[in-house]
Amino acid sequence: MINYKTQNELGLMRQAGLALAAVVEDLKAAVQPGVRTREIDKLAQARIRSAGARPGFLGYHGYPNSICISINDEAVHGIPGPRKVVAGDIVSLDLGLVLDGFWADMGCTVPAGQASSEAQRLIRVTDECLQVALQHAQPGGRLGDISAAVQRHAEQNGFSVIRQFVGHGIGRQMHEAPQVPNFGRAGSGPELKPGMTLAIEPMVNQGAPEVYIKPDGWTVCTSDGLLSSYVEHTVAITAQGPQVLTALDAASSGRIAV
Ligand code: MF3
Ligand code: CO
């Protein structure tokens, strides 16, 4: 069942999203060669708490940290630890917080120092996948419009999308209906209606779409060992178009009508 949010609830979710966007901005700056991933986790937890929020991932289904950090062939759900970021790595940050009872979920992939041009292209195309997803997140459309747009953009650029993990509805729970796959058919799936709130998260592989989970039970890696990139925003469908609840400022939160 899809939980449609009221204007008041959307306002609370925007506050959560704004708080998270500010945290992510700080964390991006912390991704530098030599930093240990557990140091980024510590910073994430401190920043979330000082915003008056709760680190949502911590303890979620037993997850041990406040952030997922996934490097190079790690696609998503990497666990912070003693690993040091190396120049040229591409580093995905994925974190969520709960403020006033509502979740925000967001992530991005950034290079540490100078990454290869192919790695940079992968990150850019993944970011573009989220932009085309937003262009298709229109009331009156279908969820499959979003999914198909992401898949098409990734594949047109010679990349692939992960099938085993998907985006999701979000609200008082991190994971609500509906699932938001990064693949599918335009015109299929539930209708996009004002009040829907979706975590849209393109997960794009440099090579084949297959992934496996490491023995730690969390870290998702590409089966071919090639790079993977990811980006995520929490988005509301409004009568005027999509609103990016996790945008850093009002101007970029937009209500993009076509
Ligand atoms: N963004 C991820 C998701 O939507 C985060 C879940 S990781 C966990 O599924 F640690 F919280 F489980
Ligand atoms: Co998510």
UniProtKB/TrEMBL annotation:
<dbReference type="GO" id="GO:0005829">
    <property type="term" value="C:cytosol"/>
</dbReference>
<feature type="binding site">
    <location>
        <position position="105"/>
    </location>
    <ligand>
        <name>a divalent metal cation 1</name>
    </ligand>
</feature>
<dbReference type="GO" id="GO:0070006">
    <property type="term" value="F:metalloaminopeptidase activity"/>
</dbReference>
<feature type="binding site">
    <location>
        <position position="77"/>
    </location>
    <ligand>
        <name>substrate</name>
    </ligand>
</feature>
<dbReference type="InterPro" id="IPR000994">
    <property type="entry name" value="Pept_M24"/>
</dbReference>
<dbReference type="InterPro" id="IPR001714">
    <property type="entry name" value="Pept_M24_MAP"/>
</dbReference>
<feature type="binding site">
    <location>
        <position position="232"/>
    </location>
    <ligand>
        <name>a divalent metal cation 2</name>
    </ligand>
</feature>
<feature type="binding site">
    <location>
        <position position="175"/>
    </location>
    <ligand>
        <name>substrate</name>
    </ligand>
</feature>
<keyword id="KW-0645">Protease</keyword>
<comment type="subunit">
    <text>Monomer.</text>
</comment>
<comment type="similarity">
    <text>Belongs to the peptidase M24A family. Methionine aminopeptidase type 1 subfamily.</text>
</comment>
<keyword id="KW-0031">Aminopeptidase</keyword>
<feature type="domain" description="Peptidase M24">
    <location>
        <begin position="12"/>
        <end position="239"/>
    </location>
</feature>
<dbReference type="GO" id="GO:0006508">
    <property type="term" value="P:proteolysis"/>
</dbReference>
<feature type="binding site">
    <location>
        <position position="105"/>
    </location>
    <ligand>
        <name>a divalent metal cation 2</name>
    </ligand>
</feature>
<comment type="function">
    <text>Removes the N-terminal methionine from nascent proteins. The N-terminal methionine is often cleaved when the second residue in the primary sequence is small and uncharged (Met-Ala-, Cys, Gly, Pro, Ser, Thr, or Val). Requires deformylation of the N(alpha)-formylated initiator methionine before it can be hydrolyzed.</text>
</comment>
<keyword id="KW-0479">Metal-binding</keyword>
<feature type="binding site">
    <location>
        <position position="201"/>
    </location>
    <ligand>
        <name>a divalent metal cation 2</name>
    </ligand>
</feature>
<dbReference type="Pfam" id="PF00557">
    <property type="entry name" value="Peptidase_M24"/>
</dbReference>
<dbReference type="InterPro" id="IPR036005">
    <property type="entry name" value="Creatinase/aminopeptidase-like"/>
</dbReference>
<dbReference type="GO" id="GO:0046872">
    <property type="term" value="F:metal ion binding"/>
</dbReference>
<feature type="binding site">
    <location>
        <position position="232"/>
    </location>
    <ligand>
        <name>a divalent metal cation 1</name>
    </ligand>
</feature>
<dbReference type="GO" id="GO:0004239">
    <property type="term" value="F:initiator methionyl aminopeptidase activity"/>
</dbReference>
<protein>
    <recommendedName>
        <fullName>Methionine aminopeptidase</fullName>
        <ecNumber>3.4.11.18</ecNumber>
    </recommendedName>
</protein>
<keyword id="KW-0378">Hydrolase</keyword>
<dbReference type="InterPro" id="IPR002467">
    <property type="entry name" value="Pept_M24A_MAP1"/>
</dbReference>
<feature type="binding site">
    <location>
        <position position="168"/>
    </location>
    <ligand>
        <name>a divalent metal cation 2</name>
    </ligand>
</feature>
<feature type="binding site">
    <location>
        <position position="94"/>
    </location>
    <ligand>
        <name>a divalent metal cation 1</name>
    </ligand>
</feature>
